[in-house]
Design brief:
The complex is a heterotetramer, with two copies of chain A (about 325 residues) and two copies of chain C (about 325 residues).
Chain A: E1 4-8, H1 9-23, E2 27-31, H2 46-52, E3 57-59, H3 64-76, E4 80-84, H4 95-109, E5 116-121, H5 136-140, E6 146-148, H6 153-165, E7 170-175, E8 183-187, E9 199-202, E10 207-211, H7 215-227, E11 233-237, E12 240-242, H8 246-256, E13 259-266, H9 271-282, E14 292-296, H10 305-311, H11 315-327
Chain C: H1 7-32, H2 47-55, E1 62-64, H3 70-75, H4 80-87, H5 122-135, E2 142-147, H6 154-166, E3 170-176, E4 179-180, E5 183-184, H7 185-188, E6 204-209, H8 213-228, E7 234-239, H9 257-264, H10 268-278, H11 284-307
Parallel strand pairs in C: 1-2, 2-3, 3-7, 6-7
Antiparallel strand pairs in C: 4-5
Helix pairs in contact in C: 1-2, 1-10, 1-11, 2-8, 4-11, 5-6
Classes of the chains: A alpha/beta (about 325), C alpha/beta (about 325).
The structure holds thiamine diphosphate (TPP) (2 copies) and magnesium ion (2 copies).
Chain lengths: ~325, ~325, ~325, ~325
Amino acid sequence: MTEIRHLTYLDAIAEALSVEMERDPNVVVLGTDVGGSFGGAFKVTKRVATQFGPRRVRNMPMTELAFIGAASGMALMGMRPVVEVQFADFISTGFDSIVQFAATTHYRWGAAVPWVIRAPSDGGIRSGPFHSQNPEAWFVHTPGLKVVAPATPADAKGMLLASIRDDNPVIYFEAKPLYRSLKGPVPDGSEAIPIGVARIAQEGDDVTIVTYGSTVHDSVQAAAELAGDGVTVEVIDLRSLKPMDTDAILESVAKTGRALVVHAANRMAGVGAEIAAFIAEEAFGHLDAPVRRLGGMDIPIPFSPPLEDTYRVSAYDIVRTVREMVAW
Amino acid sequence: MTEIRHLTYLDAIAEALSVEMERDPNVVVLGTDVGGSFGGAFKVTKRVATQFGPRRVRNMPMTELAFIGAASGMALMGMRPVVEVQFADFISTGFDSIVQFAATTHYRWGAAVPWVIRAPSDGGIRSGPFHSQNPEAWFVHTPGLKVVAPATPADAKGMLLASIRDDNPVIYFEAKPLYRSLKGPVPDGSEAIPIGVARIAQEGDDVTIVTYGSTVHDSVQAAAELAGDGVTVEVIDLRSLKPMDTDAILESVAKTGRALVVHAANRMAGVGAEIAAFIAEEAFGHLDAPVRRLGGMDIPIPFSPPLEDTYRVSAYDIVRTVREMVAW
Amino acid sequence: MTESLDSAGKLNLAYWMRLTRTLDDALVAMWKQGRGVGGTFSGRGHEAIAVGAGYALGPDDVVAPMHRDLGCYLVRGMSPERILANQLGKEAGVTKGRDANLHGLGDLSLNIIGFVSHLPQSLPVALGAAMAFQYREEPRVALTFTGDGSSNTGLFHETLNLAAVQKAPFVLVVENNQYAYSTPLHEQMAIDDIVVRAPAHGVVGEIVDGNDVMAVYSAVAAAVARARRGDGPSLIEAKTMRMLGHAIHDGAEYVPAELLEKWQQRDPVTLWEAALVAEGALSEATLERLRGECHDEIEAAIEYAERAPLPDPATIGTGVYAT
Amino acid sequence: MTESLDSAGKLNLAYWMRLTRTLDDALVAMWKQGRGVGGTFSGRGHEAIAVGAGYALGPDDVVAPMHRDLGCYLVRGMSPERILANQLGKEAGVTKGRDANLHGLGDLSLNIIGFVSHLPQSLPVALGAAMAFQYREEPRVALTFTGDGSSNTGLFHETLNLAAVQKAPFVLVVENNQYAYSTPLHEQMAIDDIVVRAPAHGVVGEIVDGNDVMAVYSAVAAAVARARRGDGPSLIEAKTMRMLGHAIHDGAEYVPAELLEKWQQRDPVTLWEAALVAEGALSEATLERLRGECHDEIEAAIEYAERAPLPDPATIGTGVYAT
Ligand SMILES: Cc1ncc(C[n+]2csc(CCOP(=O)(O)OP(=O)(O)O)c2C)c(N)n1
Ligand SMILES: Cc1ncc(C[n+]2csc(CCOP(=O)(O)OP(=O)(O)O)c2C)c(N)n1
Ligand SMILES: [Mg+2]
Ligand SMILES: [Mg+2]
């Protein structure tokens, strides 16, 4: 029997780490500043650092390429390392080892590389071009990786459990603007939420919004506003980007005939392009209007409030776009 | 007056380097094994190594991250370095410096970073997962870069000239299967072919194929075959991926009503997704059939002939897909 | 370039260090009062390194300072107004509201290269500048800074190796401030002195007291002269202490109080002022006036920056590409 | 683990080196005859390093060999059949036709980690294996190889630093074969001995004669014992010469003939055979038989590999993910 409590998005992640480290001694945490009394730049690992100490929650020198590579070696030997990159932006420093070694090993010689990289992504908090990125598209394009991006505390917990238990390298994008601002019900216990299954965040009949991460909440907010127009919007929270629940997308679009894809990352050749291209091909006969996409502009993410606010997709942008779509 | 000669794709690149190094003393070549009597793994830089010597054609230690970063520093000081990564696959080793430093600098503080990275890409020559990659999607998704991918000797020359003269970081993907197998007319002289303008490789009325790189040739071959069915295919060779000539795409699709996107890179979240999503949105009213995409499978690129041949998009795949499209 | 300074030079060092400290204090205060935007970094404790190294450069030399090097931006001619405006996200800031805090404070008219977060990406970039000077046979030098944490990165080593093999006019100053964010030296590396990394690449290395501005100045000036002569790169390890948290939000509870107390005794700004007073180069009254001038200068800059307009959102898309 | 060998051990070294050379020669011949697929690498000249180091490991130790380490794959139990089948792209190859030549020759049942092209990505991976042993308190060691060229990379340094600070049971053998592809040492680095990179990280370092299999064996065995005792990582620089081109297509015209001639005098395989004959451990007749056995073994492997079927294209999509 699982009890429902309300946790922040951050505490849900911290709880998943704790639960799984208790269950499985092969799970260790690696990263810069994750351990000791500090417990991480965002304090996500503070709970496990206190609970399990420096043997299992290990501070690394600021050498992402080496410690991500080391995580692959540990994983090959049967461990399940969970790596924190301090900001998702810094994943580019460890990129080579992820896309060339970890992603390809099972296909090439059959050895599993079960690690997770936790990547605190997304912006809106005036952190500028190097602490606000959403680089998931690079990894969705790379064969051999799995990529997840939970939007709720319950998914943050359940999908981190699934990611750690998965036998493959999984990049787990957590939306840092949600860390403390979002609270929600989180089941007790240790049940995983499977990778590859989308969630209907909101049911509706007129337009489908396909989204993930922080823009799930903007989409739900937009849906509430649009309900006032008499337009009901179905919001699909993908949760998992690779593999992607294409059935859920098609089913919804078959019903609504209109699809809008929304994400925080820049739009150009983003994950939304794959989703839109997929819908346009596979649901062509159902479409009453073109598939639209909303995402960041094709520019580095600016820092100053009026610029960052202009850069980011807002609920207002979504409302306006859906209105255009239904009027099409 | 420019004289037309026939050169291989490789010699056209070598000639562009030579022409531009003669014109502009700020142009230098950097890379592993590019200089001396050796002149590069594929001998592309042998001509300029002989012509200009080690001061201008400089062997670097095998440290892509450092020498790409150094190219940015040279570029900031007004030089125009042309970097060779030995295989496009190794661009991931220098990734951090490209996407974080070079791509963002002009937007952030207004300084131009005019370098070119030459990346010998693509497969079909039994080189396996690490010498056959087409990683252009990572860079098309990254704001601040330019990305080109010429398919003919004339474009290889003219676009390399344009890339070197461009004031921005340009990644120049050259298709190594074409190096010696493809010969074509190449104008004498030093005229650049502008970045951002597509080329109609073949005119037609029934179906538009949007492609670039080696698959331009497969597409043209497929078009010849399809002509036998009475289907005329328009093949658009994009040449430039970022910026992209979206007008040329729309114009053609408005005429044909059918679009197929083809590239050698894996299809999942590839550049083709952006192109297909763009067409599906902007040309929706013109489309008589869904936009289709062909690309590599979402797997590391296998080495063994029956596997690699299955992996790669062929003219036959294109013919079959176009037939399905016209029958739709 | 001489390696000692006349008394005007010595007073200049005092001025730039005091100005740096005044601006640094103001930033900390403003951000604590909620008058900041995003985060900010304090370089408290690093003034002697940032100023001493920056002052050792000639006008045509290029520098790529980092996030503890406020003093270097100042001494190389970037005004407090532009720095403050940048940190407040204003149009008048160096990056026009695009890059945060000290990031991206580049200005080629001042021969300053701005940095990106990804440490230490400035190292090969500064080296590339040095290689350009060498190629064009210009008597210029490029200098950059890096931290103890960054000295563990591959790029630190790739850069030193490439600098050595190219014999480039390049100087690298390592600011060993005992911590990389929350991580003390002994959890980052198994060596006592970072300078032992220089011979791994055939680079000349030296340790200096990073809280003694004259020591920093002299060592850097010698390295710059060496580079300018064509004798290749140098590494200088300046030992110091990060006196506040990693960034403004960080209380640095993980730093033992005794360590801070010990280093507080050797505050680089007051140490140099006291030395000048002791040698008679500076009177208490002049010192008082100097402090007052710095205070007024920074107050004026704050007023300017706070009043300056935010960028027009319509400008957001311009300048991604050079044209 | 002792650091000297009884005579059976010494004969084993001779066998594995001869087998390695025989297979290497066969690969070169086959590819020159057009019987190969794609390219192939020769490790000629590296036999003493690959075999000596591999032989110094215990059965539970893990190794990540590179592209010159044919002998290490063999001595650790990978059969010539599987290696040949792999190079010919056959289903029976280690990678089932997926990865090329020696790339990806990993088999955890043999405690071998396969490599990727991107050099030197195996280094931190092998270190991670060592960290796993340390974490689980298993008396196991991880060893990997790298080249002179790779010793310039950041990852080489990041790995050594991390190994040192974690005090991991990790051994790194640097195969200094004078060239990285066409680039001689002096264009790659400004140092004479790569071993000077060990103290940059607090790692123990040693130079050995890479053409003397006993010297390699002893040094590696000592380093492995040290690691197993919990005394941390070591770096061993084995000096040798790459006797053929970078890969099969490369004629290596850029290598001075005298350099090759000099090293040819000290061919590691014949050197060891001659030493054993001289000390009476091996008769000329036994040596002849040993060579014959190696020849027959490789001939049989070639026949097997050439007859083995290519993979079924229908298998192409399987195994991208572990399930
Ligand atoms: C590649 C990378 N990883 C992580 C970070 C986050 N980060 C910013 S500064 C810092 C510590 C740097 O330490 P050090 O080099 O000693 O410089 P200091 O801040 O102490 O001056 C870290 C981990 C980063 N900027 N870049
Ligand atoms: C990151 C990267 N860049 C370039 C290459 C291409 N390449 C393959 S081996 C090699 C030379 C390696 O030299 P070294 O480390 O000395 O090993 P050796 O081949 O001499 O044994 C190069 C440049 C590569 N494999 N990886
Ligand atoms: Mg530090
Ligand atoms: Mg070598």
